[in-house]
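re: that chain from earlier
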Amino acid sequence: MARDTIETVCGYSCSRCDHLGDECPGCEATKGKPFWTAYAGVECCPVYDCCVNERNLPHCGTCPDLLCERFTRFKDPNVSEEQAEAVLLQMEQALRARR
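^ sequence. v structure.
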């Protein structure tokens, strides 16, 4: 699979994910059910579910509640708080640029 930028509803770039490819084709391809949902104990990504399924938005950048609790609830347990905050900031900036 090409490692081009794959835009997601949350602003995270699937292209930066080590699981993209055989393990996971990306959030859009899985309709919000990427590989990690099995480890997080959820059926669907809460951000994808809210944005696409409940609000019918193209991405969170068009949501007036951007950076809501659903957006900040999950973080990679392998990164520090500082790293998690930096990733959230990048995601927010990417989403606001897509408005």
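The chain has one domain: 14-97.
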